[in-house]
Amino acid sequence: MSDFLIAYLVCAAIFFPIDYVWLTYMGQRFYFPQLGDLLLKKPRFGIAGAFYLAYVAGIVLFAVLPASSVLNAALLGAALGFIAYGTYDLTNLSTMKGFTVAVAVVDIAWGSFLTALTAAGGYWLFTAITG
């Protein structure tokens, strides 16, 4: 099995369930009250799935495989998360009525943290598996 595939599977196993719990919990308590009618009642799971598949590949390519340590992977992951989630949230904040600063700040912080955690955990597990 290729290094990329091993790292991808490890990172997916970390990222997907943690983000699912976050979105399930915070969706009703934070995102829906903040964004109201901007959000669909039922997400388009195919489109979301395409994002998740691509984003985990980005974590592997830009944070896990080039890292030299768990800390380095975490820092690369935090930077990637900040850039990716920041691009999304700041674009929405600049172009959408009703998109709030609070949502942008929370979402950027979450994306930075989750990507750092995934990259660090992914790097640690990847190196444990592959030696």
Automatic annotation (TrEMBL):
The chain crosses the membrane at residues 6-25, 45-64, 70-88, 100-126. Pfam families: DUF2177 (PF09945). Keywords: Membrane, Transmembrane, Transmembrane helix. The keyword Membrane applies. This is Membrane protein. It comes from Pelagibacterium lentulum.
